[in-house]
Amino acid sequence: xxxxxxxxxxTSGGDCAGLNAVIxxxxxxxxxxxxxxxxxxxxTAGLLDRxxxxxxxxxxxxxxxxxxxxxxxLGTTNKGNPFQFPMGDGSMKDxxxxxxxxxxxxxxxxxxxxxxxGSMAILRKLAERGKFGLVCVPKTIDNDVGMTEMSVGFxxxxxxxxxxxxxxxxxxxxxxxxxxxxxMGRDAxxxxxxxxxxxxxxxxxxxxxxxxxxxxxEKIIHVRDKEQRNFALCxxxxxxxxxxxxxxxxxxxxxxKRYGGIGYYIGEQIAEKTGFETRVTVLGHVxxxxxxxxxxxxxxxxxxxxxxxxxxxxKFDRMVAWSNRQVIDVPIEEAIASYQQVDVKGPLVHTARMxxxxxxx
Length: 361
Ligand code: F6P
Hints:
7-stranded mixed sheet; Rossmann fold; alpha/beta; elongated
């Protein structure tokens, strides 16, 4: 009798809505094929520990509750690259061998990794070194993975950020205020641009388009004086630079850096240059924590099923992708190489301009 296939699944990098829906789809599709699915805990971190941290996932665990939940039931990490693992004494160590040993101990025929570009690059290197089959599912609220129109989590983040603008608008109008909303996105302005269009912003600042703060101020003054509106809404992407060209980042213990705070900087500049009362909201991780909206659940389900089919076909080193209303697969290497920032000549930038939205230039 042929050996029952045993596959591993892990979530890696920052969490987002829809990860549990991918896990569920993989477990369902793999169970249909009579395979066993091992859930690896905390990305690759669970494979560094001894005893190994994992759990057997069965279809019965996946009633319809889990797919509705945000986060990931397996846990995740966006720290600790195993090829350069920070040790307690400040040194770095290559611990990739321990992860590969863990995969071998578990007898995994293949691994399905749900991650963004950084995680996929690490998993690919591990798969090459450990000679195991790897299929990846793109997930990121930033929607910056190349070669796919959709990544799990983006649509929900967009929904949350747009809802935030919907909530800011009436309070802005009640108090004659300018509201600045800072959103995430890392080095890509995808969340900011889409949110700004969907939420009726007057100004959208993204890292792909350098801004002139005087143009931003002019637009806000125009809104009040010429359009006779008593409020204005501005969306600012977290990686937008200061006028002097610096990034607003926080540095945490251990040297980890994260964007955050540019909204306050822009808000101060707007208040100074326009004289209008201005308030700032930094949305932060709220964008990641929601239950997945239907479109993310659909993408998650389709991606999970496709990932299992690729494993069944022995088609490895591939990432599932959404393209032209189809679920396809592309080389992981190429997807990582084509980092997807906002296309400044693309339809959304054009739409924003035609709506009279100021992009700062
Ligand atoms: O990549 C997803 C993301 O949410 C970015 O938009 C953001 O810059 C970063 O992760 C925040 O990371 P952390 O969860 O470590 O604060």
